[in-house]
Amino acid sequence: MTSHKSTFRFLIFLLVSALAAGIPPASATRRPASSSHDYGDALTKCIMFFEGQRSGRLPPNQRLTWRRDSALRDGSDIGMDLVGGYYDAGDNVKFHLPMAWTTTMIGWSVLEFGNKMGRSDLRHSLDALRWGTDYFLKATSVPGRVVAQVADPVLDHDCWERPEDMDTPRNSYVLNASHPGSEVAGEIAAALTVGALAFRRIRPSYTKLLLNRAIQVFEFGDKHRGSYAQSVGAGACPFYCSPNGYMDELAWAAAWLFMATGDRKYSYYVKSNLGTGLTAFNWDSKFAGVYVLLASLDYAYAANADNLVCAIMPESPSKTYTYTPGGLLYSKGASSNMQNPTALCFLLAAYTRVLRARNRSVRCGNVNIDPSRLDRFVKSQADYILGSNPLGMSYMVGYGPRYPRRIHHRGSVLPNIRQHPKKIGCSEGYWYFKNLRSNPNVLTGAVVGGPDMNDGFQDSQLVVSQSEPTTYINAPFVGVLAFVKGGFKV
């Protein structure tokens, strides 16, 4: 989580530490940008990142071996098994709204571009997907209840502990008929449906389980409408408040259910509840994803997808996004900007398939944008993230010769269990946090929040918006990297 993450005491600590450290701007050590990249290596690492975010009992094939089992009693406060899932970012909370969107996007990456991944990366992508869908089967296992989150975020963010050492409250926040949460229910339904589609040919019984549960959860979220921000309260806000509301999640879930079942009632639901003119796509905003997903089925969706293209492309006279001087898509006010280019580029990459199938381009005023132009744009954004930028800095940890070494992530900052078997308590971890040397554990594949609007970057745990990785940055980037690795042969 990348905004409002700490108490007043912690904010004062950060300010004093930053002033004492005298962190120099990254622009002081500029290097020439790289012009070519190993997209296969980047893809492998991008997928591996999710293993570093796993909660619960780790499997024997765990590749990031500095992690250990954690949070093995989650759900015990309400008599449920909630062991598993993903931590959202550099903290130890399981926020189900962004976790479900992460799961959906891993699954969509597999569905859209899995044939370009290679056998090993596809297998690990499916493992990452199932880590999410297995968990959401647990979180929805009691009829009429959906678990929205695990752990008290305020108390968690006031500690600097390894996941393996957590002793802060692991509260379970439950949604029901009197405490609705349609955003969470809708996104979980979408994640389960995408999982059903991804596993349809290889695990038919699992597919049936996922799809049946998705339908139940969607119906729960639609019947008992309301925002989880009101039901969960301080557990959701100011962390993942969902200011965009819940109708986009419900329409998003219905769109995926239509793709999975062919039942026209879901298509009608989407048409009856579809927002227009919306060009954001992230854990809180899904309408743009609906446009692209259904664009091949109905021109009305394609028209909105065209508007999305015109809002993004730098040469479009109607663009709404801005760009850094080095060319990175940038959204002012975003607490973690890199989620924007990864997610929006995924949509553009998926939309090129629709445009090619229809042998058409997008018209933005007097500017014509054809699929090959979208190909080049997506590649340019991927290249910037991987190091083709004014600083020559790869924003993916472990990729290339120069990448962030001081990311804002508890498990990466603190010595691992093998190095330091003794428990590190809540306040003890701050000693390591104040040490601005390179993190001892490399969170391979993590894409951090990235540079500021002037391409500047401070490699420091203290600059949270730039140095913290999140699952919802990486998830769509899986598909983007598979797309550029495949050489745009769609």
TrEMBL record:
Residue span(s) of domain Glycoside hydrolase family: 39-481
Cross-referenced InterPro entries: 6-hairpin_glycosidase_sf, 6hp_glycosidase-like_sf, Glyco_hydro_9, Glyco_hydro_9_His_AS
Catalytic residues, chain numbering: 408
E.C. designation(s): 3.2.1.4
PROSITE patterns assigned to the protein according to its UniProt record, in alphabetical order: GH9_2
Flavoprotein in keyword set: no
Top-tier EC class: hydrolase
Catalytic activity: Endohydrolysis of (1->4)-beta-D-glucosidic linkages in cellulose, lichenin and cereal beta-D-glucans
Signal peptide residue numbers: 1-28
GO molecular function: cellulase activity
Superkingdom of the organism of origin: Eukaryota
Alphabetized Pfam families for the sequence: Glyco_hydro_9
A biological process from GO: cellulose catabolic process
Transferase found in the keyword field: no
Record keywords, A-Z: Carbohydrate metabolism, Cellulose degradation, Glycosidase, Hydrolase, Polysaccharide degradation, Signal
Family label: Belongs to the glycosyl hydrolase 9 (cellulase E) family.
Name by which UniProt lists this protein: Endoglucanase
Biological classification of the source: Eukaryota, Viridiplantae, Streptophyta, Embryophyta, Tracheophyta
